[in-house]
Amino acid sequence: MHCLLLIVAALRLPEAFAGDNRYHVISYLGIEQGLSNNAVRCVFQDHKGFMWFGTYDGLNRFDGNVFKVFRNKFGDSSSLVNNWVFTIHEDLQYKLWVGTRQGLNTYDPVSGKFSPVYYQQHGTKQLARITAVVRDIRRDAKGNMFIATEGTGLLYCPAGSYTAVQVPVLSEGKQLLSYDAGAPELAANDVVWFFVQGRGLCRLDKNATQAKVVNTAISTADCIKPNGDQLWIGTPNGLMQYVISSNTYGQAYTEENGKLAYNKVSSLFLDKCGRLWVATNGGGISIIYTGDGSAAAHIPAGNSNYTLASASVSAIYEDTEGRKWIGTLRGGVNIIDPKKDRFQSYLHDPLNNNSLPSNFIFAFCEEKDGTIWVGTDGQGLSRWQRHSGTFTNYAHQAGVSNSLSDNFVTNIRCDKDQHIWISTFWGGVNRFDKKTNSFRHYSLLSNNSEKESKTVYLLYKDSQDNLWAGTFDRGALYKGALYKYDRLQDAFRVFDDKLPDLFTMAEDRNGQLWAGNLHSLIKIDTLHRQHQSYTLGNPVRAIQEDSKGRFWIGTEGGGLILFDRQAGKVLQRYTTAEGLCNNAVLNILEDEAGDLWISTFYGISRFNADKKIFTNFYQGDGLSSNQFNYNAALRLRSGELLFGGIKGLNIFRPANIGASGNQPEMHFTDIHVNNQRLGQLTQYIQDQRGGEIRKIKVPYNEAVFSFAFTALDFSTSDKIAYTYFMEGWDKNWNQAGNSRTATYTHLAAGHYTFRVKSTNAEGQWLNNEISLEIIVLPPWYATWWACLLYLLVVLAAAAAFITYKTKQRRLKYEIALAKLTTEKERELNEKKIAFFTNVSHEFRTPLTLIINPVKDLMEEEELTGKHQRELNTVYRNARRLLRLLDQLLLFRRADSEIDRLKPTRFNFTALCREVFLSFEQQAQSDNQAYTFLCDTTDLYITGDREKLEVAFFNLLSNALKYTPAGGRITLALQHTDQEVTITVTDTGYGIPAESAPHIFDKFYRSERQCHAQQSGFGIGLYLVKQFITLHGGSISFQSAAGEGTTFTVVLPRGSEATPEEPATTVTAGRTGFLHTMAEPQEPMTELTEEETEDDTIGLRITDKQTMLIVDDDEQIRQYLAGMFRHTFQLEEASNGKEGLEKAIAILPDVVISDIRMETMSGLELCREIKQHPLLNHIPVILLTGSSAEEGKLESAEVGSDYYLTKPFEKELLAATVQSVLQTRDNLRNYFLNEVTLRKNDFKVSGQYKEFVEKCIAIVEANLDNDAFNIKVLAREIGMSHSSVYKKIRQVSGESLRGFVRFIRLRKAAELMINTPLNVNEIGFQVGINDVKYFRQQFNKVFGMNPSDYIRRYRKVFEDKYKLEKIDTKRKASDRKKAGT
């Protein structure tokens, strides 16, 4: 059919090179559509059907929708070697061969990578990469590749190999290896023809190892096309015909002999009809019949749908469906698609007078001789004589009465007399006179009016040859009406002025006239003018009764309507939902087959009313435009249909517009796994065949898939719809419309199959499904061995379940019991808080009865210093207890949310100063820099004075509490018109970072030692936060550990309309709260020398001993010092660390320490003392304010001697001290009596008595052992070294050396009593060789000299003791080295 159309075109157009290519619609692809460059050097279609284009800037793959561009990437060896692509081909392994200006690449469509091709130099085994310019590539039937290069000649690459060999050329008896090969082409019997540039035509026979030059008449050519016994050869000087059998050149086709449009032939293509398409570099395409050598057609460059985009044509390629793909330089890709030749278009050509006057077509009419009249919207009328192909155009000429009255033509009709009637929008009705070639104007006058109705939109001729004209209502200018032509009067008369603004009119087979207006379908009564109107709601633009009597109405916006004329109702409505291309139905025509053709604002629909199937056609199908106009439709006598739009007219024969029958193949264009191209993840590919991936296996954590696919249809790709289905995941097919992608994220482990298919251009689903099998591997925890493990776990769980069920009832009971207990604890806690609050209230009464009488007693002048001091202590501590109670009461009120603000207007500066002065004496006593900064004395705000006092009192109290001596505290006050800002800055310990989020929580206290040792409930900052928030203010802080803290409070100043606080409250000094919270200002009364002895505790201790008092409360230290001042030498320390240092320095006889202290607690101090070798004998008495049993246990663990809780009775403490010291003295006196052999009346525990006797026996047994030491003694006793040392120290108060010396002297006394030895002999006997030292030590222990002792006791005990004969000489030598 396509060849037949071309033949007809040639017959109709004898002047082949006139530039008229009306029967070939040419479409265009360029950089606007995604082509990398408009200079296209080569075109190729691979085995899948993708089109490939080589350009000056990369390789392009086209799938009918989009381009995919491949370019050289710097530094990437797997990319294209060079962007200037000359040639493309494909081998039998489906790899693409790409020849460039810098060598040859093969492209693997699976991996997406380019690889180089090597060649073996002739006569050697050395391989070299092909880097020369590759001009052309050809493949024979066996898959052997022939590569034409510049410099390295023709290369031959066997099938399946990617290493080529050089083909030498025999020329004039010489073998050429380095030459420029070009234009290779395979002819019959696998003979390869090519040119050696500069030498001539060469031939390589089958199985030959070298080529030979066969003809040198033409030395250079760019292309060859075999045709039987002929070779068509394109050269820079024209087209040559070479006869193979005679080895001669025959006819030449050149520009000079008029047989070629341009001499520079760049490419040749021989089509199936035996025509040779000659591409020229500057003259477009010339088509020649190869049979007789005559010219068939010429396709030049131009701006119409029938011309090329560029005259420089570099390649012509015909795909499997007969499309011609034309590669041009600068004009991109031009396509001649036979499917688009079905619709012929006629457009306005501004450079050609023999064309339509305008592209805006509005009306048609056909005469009996086939002449077609075309009305335009604004450019007048055209008379188209199809047999001669001429257009005669008519337009309005100002001042010429017989010219067309207006250029806006709305309708054209031809009556039985072959008169041509033309209606215009601004000029009424015209009739064309063929004899005079002029127009006569007809005026349409309304009844009883001389005003002409010029806006004629409707012109219709019925079966009776009556001519009807309808006009629009123009307001005050003239009224619209329906007119009828009166042939007798030769004038239009008003038929009915109640029928204005008619758009269309039609007559059914019964002779009934129908019309349509803006809203309704009208049934016209031509006799009685009793018209019937049927409201449809949309403008009626077309009325058509088909050959089967069905009545169709085309509406603008309401689609196509099937109307029942008998019932006067709509039977069926068809819109885009049913397949109509657009709901604005402008014209309806019926073809010879009974199908309806419907033009719209977006395409043309063919409707099979019996099957109710729409087939839509658009610009991509060959129409000149998608938008069509009102009235512009006509069925010709030949059966052809005419439709006019905004881009000329379209004429076609419906019988030729059949279903394409095309079944495009589906292909994957890209697959991504986890956002990476599948070709880069070759380890996941399990199966691939024919360049297609069939199966992949992917880990579960990368199971994110993206598929791109397409149906290869290069004519109507926009009309193809897709649907896809993931078998094993989706429940139904997913309708994707024209979208060509699908994405799945995080597929579960398992086997899947992704399936996709498409429709054809007619919307029918095809059996072109493609699929990809996908295996998503399970994670390790879903493998078979993991499942086995799970089974074991389940079995174990089942076994445990039995046990679990037996425990369930008991557990439920325990949970219920726990819940009940929790509820009771909650209730008990609430009762405890209420009780504690009530008790706090009750405490205030006795405290009042204590504070006031004590204060009265303190004011009496006759009190002694001692009494004054003790009363002062009572007063201070009673006030302290009162402060604590008040803090608890404030907390209870704030926490229960019953506290409300009592706002007044008061002097805020005075309040801050009063709070500041409350701590001035305390700051002075702690040697702290204490500063108040304020720039005004009268700053009034509105608020609750008492609550603000509490807040700032707590802030300053904390600042002083956590700032060590020598630190700095600053209270600063700043203000603006709207708010005041108060900052409290200290240089104390700072707030730890971990405590910062919690410091405003109630009961929160930092666990750090410097904070934990400070007294408090953890409610001070909670109250501050609560009271500041109640005032609508804010509090924040900045702190650095070890550097200090700054609290910032911002308060609104409030309204001045609030009543001021009474003057008495402001000037009264301190409020009740400050009066309660402030420390009493009376100075501490010092102890005097005149204090009576009645105040001392009589301790029966012979010598004045040393007592160390350790407590961080100065008042406690002073109180204890007052108790023991006359009986002990006193030392004081304010913390455990200082106490340990003083204990080491003075070795006190007893230590009294508080447990809770900074730096080092009392428990740590006791542990250090008991572990110190010089201090471990010192008794330690611990005092604590806690009555918890845990405290007693902890004190016992660290080795304390006694544990007393506060408050304590002073008599009990005195008795405890006396008891501790008396116990120690009893032990030591017992030991001394044992040593001095006196009568021992002291009562000690059996443990100590046994220890002393055992130690004496062991030491006496080792008096002559020079190696005797503490380790030997510990081993003999069976105790550790440290335990023996501590016990000896406790019993004797002496070190080990002193303890042994005592026992030596005891033995000496025994010898003095029981033996007649003299003093010197006895000294040697007990191991003391120095007689003088022996006499001194004996005198210290026994209170007399050894000689006196002998005289006094030896007689007395003479009869009692028996003398022991001792060999003193023998032992004297052994004790020369004995020490004391």
From TrEMBL:
It comes from the Bacteria. This is histidine kinase. Gene3D superfamilies: 1.10.287.130, 3.40.50.2300, Histidine kinase-like ATPase, C-terminal domain (3.30.565.10), Homeodomain-like (1.10.10.60), Immunoglobulins (2.60.40.10), YVTN repeat-like/Quinoprotein amine dehydrogenase (2.130.10.10). Residues 1106-1221 form the Response regulatory domain. It catalyses: ATP + protein L-histidine = ADP + protein N-phospho-L-histidine. It is an enzyme of class 2 (transferase). It holds the Pfam family HTH_18. Its EC number is 2.7.13.3. Residues 838-1055 form the Histidine kinase domain. The modification 4-aspartylphosphate is found at residue 1154. Keywords: ATP-binding, DNA-binding, Kinase, Membrane, Nucleotide-binding, Phosphoprotein, Transcription, Transcription regulation, Transferase, Transmembrane, Transmembrane helix, Two-component regulatory system. InterPro entries: CheY-like_superfamily, HATPase_C_sf, HATPase_dom, His_kinase_dom, HisK_dim/P_dom, HisK_dim/P_sf, Homeodomain-like_sf, HTH_AraC. The chain crosses the membrane at residues 780-804. One of its GO terms (molecular function) is DNA-binding transcription factor activity. Residues 1253-1352 form the HTH araC/xylS-type domain.
